[in-house]
Amino acid sequence: MLDIFIASDAAQRDRCYLLRIAVFVRGQGVPMSMELDDHDETEAIHFLSVEEGKDVATARLLIRGDKAKVQRVAVSRTVRGRGHGHTLMQTVIEHAKSLDAVRCVVLDSQLSASEFYAKLGFVAEGDPFDDAGIAHICMRLAL
User: Fold this and answer.
1) For residue 111, what is the domain's CATH number?
2) How far is CA 75 from CA 14, 40, 57, 83, 100, in A?
3) Is 66 helix (H, G, I), strand (E, B) or coil?
4) Residue 102 backbone dihedrals phi, psi, to 5 degrees
5) Any alpha helices (H) in 21-143, and if so which ranges?
6) In the sheet that 2-6 helps form, which strands lie side by side, from edge to edge?
7) Any idea what DSSP says for residue 83?
8) Contacts of 8 by beta carbon, 8 Å cutoff, 6+ apart
9) CA–CA distances in Å: residue 48 to residues 3, 91, 124, 125
């Protein structure tokens, strides 16, 4: 069974960071200096997905006025293709909807993952751009 919750303490946030490091730093070559930032400890809402005692997916959410920005969506290689990313994103979107001021959810998708987000209702905006050596595109979901 998949359990998704908001990381409520430093130990749970550390588990999110470890998963992100495995996926982005070790898996995709993103520099460590770009992966963790000041938002992690100060304002980000971190979501953690756990299956059978193992941390399998994470994402963070930043609130910017009427926008909720999803970042650092990471799914463990061992569970990819099993719907964990979709279920996590649905939870993040529902949380954003519960916030009165939020009118849309935005994210910068890796170009290779843009179809995944499109299936959740996100629409691409603008031209692709480079972030950490990986092609990305801005996407938006109106609430």
Assistant:
1) 3.40.630.30
2) 16, 18, 4, 10, 28
3) coil
4) -80, 130
5) 27-28, 32-35, 38-42, 84-98, 114-119
6) 2-6, 45-51, 54-64, 67-75, 104-110, 134-142, 123-131
7) S
8) none
9) 8, 10, 26, 28
What is the rounded CA–CA span in Å between residue 137 and residue 109?
Answer: 5
Tens digit of pLDDT for each residue in 42-52?
999 999 999 99
Q: Which domain holds residue 81?
A: 2-142
Q: What are phi and psi of 141, to 5 degrees?
A: -125, 115
Structure tokens at 91: 């939870």
User: What is the reported pTM?
Assistant: 0.95
Yes or no: say if 107 and 69 are a contact pair by the CB < 8 Å rule: yes
For the record, the structure tokens of 60 come out as 């963070």
Q: How far is CA 19 from the centre of its chain?
A: 11
Tens of pLDDT along 10-39? 999 999 999 999 999 999 999 999 999 999
Number of domains forming the structure of the chain: 1
